[in-house]
Each structure stands twice: as C-alpha cells, then as structure tokens.
Amino acid sequence: MNVQQHLLRARDLLARGQPEMAESALSDAIDASVAAEDIVLLTQARFALGEFLFQQQRDDEALPYLQAVVRTERVDGSVDAEVKASARMLRQIRGIEPR
User: Theoretical Cys-Cys bridge with 21: which of 13, 14, 17, 85, CB 3.0 to 4.6 Å?
Assistant: First the structure.
C-alpha cells in the first residue's frame, strides 16, 4: 500500500470505531513515506498520527509528531496547512490556547 492508501484506511477504520487499527494504519503510512523518501508525504503522515493522538488526548505521544511537522519547511507551501494546524495543537497542549 502507498501512503495515501494507508491514510484512507485509517480514516475508514476510525469511522468504523476501530481506533487501534487506525493508529496502526497511520504508523504504516509513516513507514511507507520514509520508504518512498517523500518529505511531503512524511509530513502529512506525521500530522495525521499527531492529530489522531491529540484527539485521543494522548498529548505526550502526540508531541514528537506535531513537533516534527512544525520543523518542516517547504518553500512551495505544500505542507503549510499541516504546519499551522500542528502549531495550534502544540499551543493547546501547552495551555497557551484553549482546547
């Protein structure tokens, strides 16, 4: 499976109430993006897993993924939405903004 397929599978699993399986699919998406050596896909996969963990209120586990996304810079703006959303979640985790 490619990265997008893993991400779609995770969304489907979440919709069916299977968060553990969805988390596994998100981890698989990260692995696939590393194998593909694609920083944009890696950033999207990290964001998806970080957002999932944040929504599950597993902030300590979400932190490294969200921080990695925020550190990603792309001149073409291809990951700007993920970077901004991750920064917002990090501010919420730190209590700077309300959840």
Answer: 13
What mean pLDDT is predicted for residues 55-76? 96
Q: First vs last Cα of the chain: how many Å apart?
A: 34
Output the pTM of the full model. Answer: 0.94
Please answer whether residues 14 and 44 qualify as being in contact, where contact means their C-beta atoms are separated by less than 8 angstroms: no
What does the radius of gyration of the chain's CA atoms come to, in whole angstroms? 13
Question: How many Cβ atoms sit within 10 Å of the Cβ of residue 43?
Answer: 24
pLDDT of residue 33: 97
50 closest CA partner among 78, 98, 10, 77: 10
